């Protein structure tokens, strides 16, 4: 079996090295010429997989170590008889913890949510469902908008206008242009006008879900909402003017925990084993993350804020992105955006982590976030 893979997929050699000849390359630079003697292609979201890439290749299996699928022409793969697998849900917890970190980083927002505030969740897939469950455990109410799902599939359904009236709006929809509910530019001038200075808008889905020109205009207008962007409409190009206006900006890394990446790689390996009958092999082991010790004096919301930041410093990612975007030529900034993702530091998830709590009040917060009290 001949395998070509994006070099930034972790655990490649552990999961696929025993299956055949494995070659790792830069994902954004994969061309048809690279696939003339390849059976299996493994990608991330930076590689566009369609007829233009695969039409004349011998590739018979494509795996994407991602939850989103807008970079893959699945219909064409099906028509061409090429098997496909992705990693739905692998990064859901990492994205949820990103959202919680973004909320915790905004002064007063956690307090407002815990005092009968609400979060509007747009998109009720793997991430949306887990986010709602985590919020419920914390005692935070939410509304959900996902018109593609059947009646009864969404616990607290609400029209888009009502969701946009929530204190925090978090986007987790897939990207589609399909009728009758396209998510492309779902939030334009009309929708963004509904947000005010008390609103916090978080986009950790796809950049094209928000009309970036409309968002720029809204953020420059009076009573502008606060905004956290992990995804950008024209990435790897990031508008310096837009970045300057957002409260926090990061380089499409919300789901980039080591735990999520390895889960995605394992899922692809299992799918390929089933498709080709390859020999199964134990998944690569990772080191256990260090035990967290809550400071004994922390109480109430301060416990939650400390825990949200314990595994992930969102401000560090914001600083790194601003450093490479501001003042750099466009092409260099585009390359730097990819470099930030390629060289992303190891980040572990809070859920499943061991935490030492000093009092019963702390224990409840630890459990609500999916961590383990030791």
Question: Explain this structure to me?
Answer:
By secondary structure, this protein is an alpha/beta fold. 36% of the residues lie in helices and 14% in strands. The chain has 15 helices and 14 strands. It has helices at 12-16, 51-54, 74-79, 92-104, 109-114, 126-138, 160-163, 189-192, 212-220, 240-245, 258-276, 301-310, 314-325, 330-342, 360-368, and strands at residues 2-6, 21-25, 40-43, 61-64, 83-85, 118-122, 141-145, 168-171, 200-203, 226-229, 248-249, 292-293, 354-356, 372-373. Strand 6 (118-122), helix 6 and strand 7 form a beta-alpha-beta unit. The protein starts with a strand and ends with a strand.
Helix/strand layout:
Layout: E1 2-6, H1 12-16, E2 21-25, E3 40-43, H2 51-54, E4 61-64, H3 74-79, E5 83-85, H4 92-104, H5 109-114, E6 118-122, H6 126-138, E7 141-145, H7 160-163, E8 168-171, H8 189-192, E9 200-203, H9 212-220, E10 226-229, H10 240-245, E11 248-249, H11 258-276, E12 292-293, H12 301-310, H13 314-325, H14 330-342, E13 354-356, H15 360-368, E14 372-373
Parallel strand pairs: 1-2, 1-3, 3-4, 4-5, 6-7, 6-8, 8-9, 9-10, 10-11, 12-13, 13-14
Helix pairs in contact: 4-6, 4-12, 13-14
